[in-house]
């Protein structure tokens, strides 16, 4: 008896493009957990989603773009929590430190984010996310706005543009998320000593007498 091929997408095809993309991303997540990020191929993802590899490329241009999509899908809650902290009351430096620490906790508490940002996968994860522009598109404009407001209020140095400062702070956050677990008090002390100090307003220049 001839073997019948499984229907495309299994028994239930997606009804929208967004649903199709999410099903591919969920299939990729299962593959990452099973094989690891570096060893997962587009063929693995297609097989898991019950589709042909060309269907994956119809929604994502490359394997790295799939990985970037997974990062965004899994980090939506993290980014929403950071935005709530940054839009709250209090000094900018306190809100920034709280947002950084919340991101570290979210990674530590999520098995999948821990996998993406561990030492074996962090470089590929961050590289894919930045190459696709997904992180910048979702976080850079908002963070730039918070920084610009803080500069206007005299809370931050104003000799560095808000977009440049935002890009640097995002890189600091990514570095913190890939660091091994450490006492939160120690991380906070480091943030205040180096990061907060580096973006604080510059003291007035005193001319030589």
Automatic annotation (TrEMBL):
It comes from the Bacteria. Residues 18-78 form the HTH tetR-type domain. InterPro entries: Homeodomain-like_sf, HTH-type_TetR-like_transc_reg, HTH_TetR, Tet_transcr_reg_TetR-rel_C_sf. It holds the Pfam family TetR_N. Keywords: DNA-binding. One of its GO terms (molecular function) is DNA-binding transcription factor activity. PANTHER family: HTH-TYPE TRANSCRIPTIONAL REGULATOR RUTR, HTH-TYPE TRANSCRIPTIONAL REPRESSOR RV3405C. This is Transcriptional regulator, TetR family.
